[in-house]
């Protein structure tokens, strides 16, 4: 097995552990989950910080959500396409949030030099996040495109607006007051006021 394949295998085995234990996961737990010896971890990664960074990068990658959106049949009604996409995007956000929350709660934010964390955050904004959002926006454009002749705005603008509504509303609702995915899509497509 190549070093890259071994690293990927370890990352995929460790992600669920990080969501459960955060940075407190032990090398014994990592080795057991990956089906390898503890020494193998450190032949693939120089230390746990590098492994955690690789896990974070994997969780932030939009590949899974892009694949899910690409599988949505374009011949179904736009509303159904948007609901499926919103659910896939929501699952992606929950996965990222669970990992970041577990790492933060276990003190991961305290483990690294604050200046280095700031540099890493700025680097992720410049490349990964922008590229990730552009890819998600592109996937959403494809969902709007079959209806382009009857849309009030171009698919590109609608995709951006939909993502802004979907992502911007997360965490703003009071407990028990959060709209369902279908409600978000309904308001997006039909507005907030009932037609008479």
Automatic annotation (TrEMBL):
It comes from the Bacteria. Residues 4-63 form the HTH tetR-type domain. Residues 26-45 bind DNA. Gene3D superfamilies: Tetracycline Repressor, domain 2 (1.10.357.10). Coiled coil: none annotated. Keywords: DNA-binding, Transcription, Transcription regulation. The keyword Ubl conjugation does not apply. This is TetR family transcriptional regulator.
């Amino acid at each position: 097995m190549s070093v890259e394949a071994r690293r990927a295998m370890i990352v995929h085995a460790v992600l669920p552990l990080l969501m459960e234990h955060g940075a407190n996961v032990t090398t014994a737990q990592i080795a057991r989950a990956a089906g390898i010896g503890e020494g193998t971890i450190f032949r693939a990664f120089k230390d746990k910080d590098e492994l955690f960074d690789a896990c974070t990068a994997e969780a932030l990658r939009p590949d899974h959500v892009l694949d899910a959106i690409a599988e949505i049949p374009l011949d179904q009604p736009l509303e159904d396409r948007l609901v499926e996409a919103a659910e896939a995007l929501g699952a992606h956000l929950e996965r990222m949030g669970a990992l970041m929350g577990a790492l933060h709660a276990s003190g991961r934010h305290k483990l690294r030099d604050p200046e280095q964390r700031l540099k890493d955050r700025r680097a992720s904004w410049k490349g990964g996040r922008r590229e990730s959002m552009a890819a998600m926006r592109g996937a959403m454009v494809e969902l709007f495109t079959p209806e382009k002749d009857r849309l009030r705005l171009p698919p590109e603008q609608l995709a951006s607006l939909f993502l802004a509504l979907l992502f911007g509303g997360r965490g703003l609702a009071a407990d028990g007051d959060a709209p369902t995915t279908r409600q978000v899509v309904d308001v997006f497509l039909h507005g907030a006021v009932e037609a008479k």
